[in-house]
Design goal:
It is built from 19 helices and six strands. The protein has 467 residues and is mainly α.
Length: 467
């Protein structure tokens, strides 16, 4: 029992209705944690002693256990956050916010928050910290970012508003400029993204994945013609030392080519095949990128034909299942990866099933190849430098999730079922994801007019029969 009164063992006959304090008593990993509820609660914001067992169990016991599980000792005295002696500029405040909040809390969007803080520090860091108490500096930031998308500016403003509220709670600022008569964040003016992926564009993306199976021409010392000539000479009986000298390559590299360990056109599941499977997975599962990359073979239920998305992998922290049909391209993909073992990641590394955390570089390369543009890089291992071309293509990986849900909506799947499939906490978010095609709207309107004409004809016939 985690909440109890230990006074009975000391001779108190009125326990647990006596006036003695309640105690928290938890065993975690063979270590026992005991302390009075009042000592724990008053140090964490309680304004009065805890006299009710119900309050102790529902309010303070979960917090007590949470601190223990996170590795803290709740019995230790809390260190009060004292304001730093030299908190003079906005940059100092943002640095403190990052140290005491972003890097301490278990946040899923930590990388995005750090990027936002870097931008805010570059734009507002030179100002005194008290400048955030007035709207002038923030309005000036909004005007400088007027050429950006409204949603982008709003994300920076929302982060800055949270920084101000966090600072007020720690007596670092006295007030905030974000109030009804100060700076406002208008979300209504944000433009909804309506990028669709046609069937023709999908085919181009999948065809472009095949080009990733070949080594990069820009960084390779050889071409396929050179490789074929090397292997032809080796089959003709020419010694490898002579071939290496003639082609100006090392004997070790020549040996690897002749044995087929590299530059092998028959190699299966290379980078291109991985990206092809991931694109199909995004369009057929409607999963977020992070959720999709964390799917393991043991989470595929072949009996019910669905994929389990675990709670800890979901953005909304809601477990759900993704059904798939027998004989579909998604099922073939899953069976092709099953041999890697139950712990292998379905959309991970091709040969080992290892986890892949990012696919941004390969995705950008596929986009350029699908649109007939040759990718260029500043150096080996660098991302493609065709930034203007990518901006003109304007296709994000998350658009594949939008497209998957929109296609299901076009086929008549109810919005409440799409909400369960997408893992959205609100049905309003699901409606934002569904972008109907013009042809689908035209067909729906045609069917509606047809039903109306039929209904009017039946009503006229009923009127004639009555007369």
């Amino acid at each position: 029992m985690a909440v109890r009164k230990p006074c009975r063992s000391k001779g108190c006959k009125a326990s647990p209705r006596c006036e003695h304090p309640w105690w928290l008593d938890v065993m975690h990993r063979h270590v026992r944690y005991r302390m009075p509820v009042d000592d724990f609660a008053l140090a964490r914001g309680a304004t009065a002693p805890v006299a009710s067992k119900q309050e102790a169990e529902k309010v303070w016991e979960p917090k007590f256990i949470a601190e223990i599980v996170s590795g803290k000792d709740p019995r230790a005295a809390l260190e009060r956050e004292n304001p730093p002696e030299r908190l003079t500029t906005v940059a100092d405040l943002l640095k403190l916010y990052r140290t005491r909040y972003v890097e301490v809390e278990p946040l899923k969007s930590r990388a995005g928050m750090v990027s936002q803080l870097n931008v805010l520090s570059a734009q507002l860091g030179h100002l005194p910290a008290t400048a955030l108490e007035r709207p002038d500096a923030i309005e000036d930031f909004k005007s400088r970012y007027a050429n950006r998308a409204i949603a982008t500016t709003n994300r920076y403003l929302a982060r800055l508003r949270h920084v101000c509220n966090w600072a007020i709670g720690r007596d670092l600022l006295s007030r905030t400029a974000f109030h009804p008569r100060g700076v406002r964040i208008s979300a209504k003016s944000e433009r909804r993204r309506e990028r669709r992926v046609s069937e023709a564009e999908e085919r181009r993306l999948l065809e472009a994945c095949k080009l990733l199976n070949e080594p990069s021409r820009g960084t390779a010392k050889l071409t396929w013609d050179d490789v074929r000539e090397i292997r032809g000479r080796a089959q003709a009986g020419v010694q490898q030392s002579e071939i290496a000298t003639a082609c100006n390559i090392s004997r070790a590299l020549c040996n690897e080519i002749v044995r087929g360990r590299i530059w092998n056109p028959d190699t299966k599941l290379t980078t291109g095949d991985e990206m092809r499977d991931r694109i199909i997975g995004a369009l057929d599962t409607s999963c977020r990128r992070g959720e999709m990359l964390k799917i393991q073979n043991k989470q595929v239920d072949w009996r019910h034909h669905w994929i389990r998305i675990l709670k800890e992998h979901s953005k909304a922290e809601v477990a759900r299942v993704i059904p798939f049909e027998a004989g579909s391209r998604l099922e073939k993909l899953l069976r092709r990866r099953a041999f890697l073992g139950p712990d292998a990641y379905v959309f991970g590394e091709a040969t080992t099933g290892g986890y892949v955390s990012s696919l941004k570089s390969a995705w950008e390369t596929v986009l350029l190849l699908a649109n007939g543009i040759k990718p260029t890089r500043a150096g080996s291992g660098k991302r493609v430098s065709n930034r203007e071309a990518l901006a003109q293509i304007d296709l994000h990986w998350h658009d594949l999730r939008h497209e998957a849900l929109s296609r299901l909506a076009d086929d008549g799947v109810p919005v409440h079922e799409l909400q369960l499939l997408a893992g959205h906490a609100s049905i309003t978010t699901t409606q934002r994801y569904m972008n109907a095609r013009s042809s689908s709207l035209a067909e729906s309107m045609r069917q509606a007019r047809k039903r109306r004409v039929t209904r009017l004809e039946h009503s006229d016939e009923a009127t004639v029969q009555i007369g």
